[in-house]
Specification:
221 residues; 7 strands; seven-stranded mixed sheet
């Protein structure tokens, strides 16, 4: 009997293409964090990543949301974005989390999502992935850095690898120079991130993707 000759296009013979998977999971009240999340997705996709953009569940009552026209409009627009599940974490090679600051901490909506990841953590399924975070506050000193650092505490417990932007590109200075992650002083929710901050978010999406890709079989920076 003749031995089968592998097809030249057989991915096992040619080397399978390892596409990097990136999940971007966020909570946004007035749209600032959503804008950063969308820019991060663009940056990751530009580097060839398969991207899942996901929002966490809203916990605030309708009366509270409708009391603020900006919040209500963002809530309406965000419905087209799928709601995050633990599968979005297990699926991904890299995950970026975003939240507005609440007294220097992430919003309860994102915290609730993180608190529901225990089963994955217990199985070790959140370890060795690449993580980063981003935020927005009502003013320049409203807790942006402490919010990112608070989110990052979760990644230490998971055994994750944190990929901060640092000062690895001059464009980060034009966006405020936050080495911990993209951030935006939103003037009490009245404005969205400017072009510099959007570009910094795109940059982080690309940087995280490149680092995650380097950790995959055959990868390199």
């Amino acid at each position: 009997m003749r031995r089968a000759v592998p097809c030249p296009q057989d991915p096992v013979q040619q080397g399978a293409i390892h596409v990097t998977r990136v999940s971007i999971i966020f909570y946004s009240a007035t749209g600032s964090v959503r804008s950063l999340a969308q820019a991060i997705a663009e940056g990751a996709q530009k580097e060839g990543a398969e991207v899942r953009l996901r929002r966490v569940a809203e916990l605030a009552p309708e009366a509270a949301i409708n009391s603020n026209p900006v919040w209500a409009e963002n809530h309406r627009v965000s419905q087209e974005i799928p709601e995050a599940t633990n599968d979005d974490l297990e699926w991904a090679d890299a995950v970026l989390f975003g939240s507005p600051t609440r007294f220097g901490l992430p919003a309860a909506q994102l915290k609730q999502f993180l608190d529901q990841t225990g089963p994955l953590w217990a199985q070790g399924k959140l370890a060795n992935k690449v993580y980063a975070s981003f935020t927005s506050a009502a003013n320049a000193h409203g807790g942006q850095e402490s919010t990112i650092l608070a989110i990052n505490n979760t990644f230490y417990h998971w055994g994750g690898l944190i990929a901060s932007p640092g000062y690895t590109d001059p464009l980060l200075f034009a966006a405020g120079g936050n080495p911990y992650g993209p951030s935006h002083p939103s003037n009490n929710g009245a404005d969205l991130p400017d072009a510099n901050r959007v570009e910094a978010a795109r940059y982080l999406g690309g940087r995280v993707t490149r680092i995650a890709a380097a950790l995959k079989p055959g990868g390199s920076l």
